[in-house]
Amino acid sequence: MTAAATTHQHTNCLRCGRKLTSTKSTATGYGPTCTRKVKAAAKAEIVATYKPHLVAKAEELIEQGGIVALRGRNVFQVVASNGVDTYKAARQGCTCAAGLKGKHVCYHRIAAHILSLAA
Ligand SMILES: [Zn+2]
Ligand SMILES: [Zn+2]
Fold it and tell me: Which ligand neighbours the alpha carbon of 113 most closely?
């Protein structure tokens, strides 16, 4: 048994309904096969929507744990690259300098989009 505290436990896969057995699956809500399929579908949508170098930056941000969910799965808090400032990002908008100008989609929004799909 693991001592890791999880707030939410799934018993069945959200995609195919099969019983989940591993700790990781009960935490994410998807079995290993469905995790791959869901991620592949999400990735395809992201790649089709945004520029590759921004997608790479967004993925890096997620890997480094620089973005965390605030409310539900739609609003995220992002730690800026200086490690001090924080922004609020969602798929539709972001409070960083580039995001407020609104001309371009910043990678914070892409990261929010990826996480909202992967959740
Ligand atoms: Zn499944
Ligand atoms: Zn931003």
Answer: 2
Ligand number, closest to the Cα atom of 30: 1
CA of 25 to the centre of ligand 2 (A): 31
Residue 98, judged by CB atoms within 10 A of its CB (0-12, 13-18, 19+), counts as middle
Gap from CA of 119 to ligand 2 centroid (Å):
20
pTM assigned to the model: 0.68
How far, in Å, CA of 79 to CA of 87, rounded? 7
Q: For the CA atoms of 100, 91, 77, 20, what is the dihedral angle to 10 degrees?
A: 180
Distance CA 94, CA 100 (A): 7
Q: Render pLDDT for 42-54 as a digit per residue (tens, 0 to 9).
A: 889 999 999 999 9
Ligand showing the shortest atom-to-Cα distance for residue 94: 2
Separation CA 76–CA 110 (nearest Å): 11
- What spacing in Å lies between the alpha carbon of 40 and ligand 2's midpoint? 24
Of 96, 98, 90, nearest in space to 117 by CA: 90
Mean pLDDT score, 62-83: 87
